[in-house]
Amino acid sequence: MFGTTTLISRPFLAILILLTLYFLGMDLLLYSRIQNYDIRPTSNGTQYVSIVSCDFNPLCTVTVKGLMLDHPNYFLLSPLAAIMDNLLHISTAWTWVTPNAISCFHVLIAVAADGHVARKRANIDGERSDVGSVGYFVDGVCDALGCVALLVGLYQFLARNTSRRGGYDKLPQLPVSSVLEPGNITLKTSNAALRNILLMTVHLFLTSAAWNRYIYLYQDLLETEYRTTSINKEYLYARQTTIFRSLSFWIIVLCWKFINFHSVMDYLLLAIFFDRMREYIRLVRWSLYVIVLLLVYVTEFHFLRAYTYVQAVPSFIDEEISSSDVFTQE
Question: Which of 24, 26, 119, 325 could make a disulfide contact with 124, Cβ separation 3.0–4.6 Å?
Answer without folding.
Answer: 119
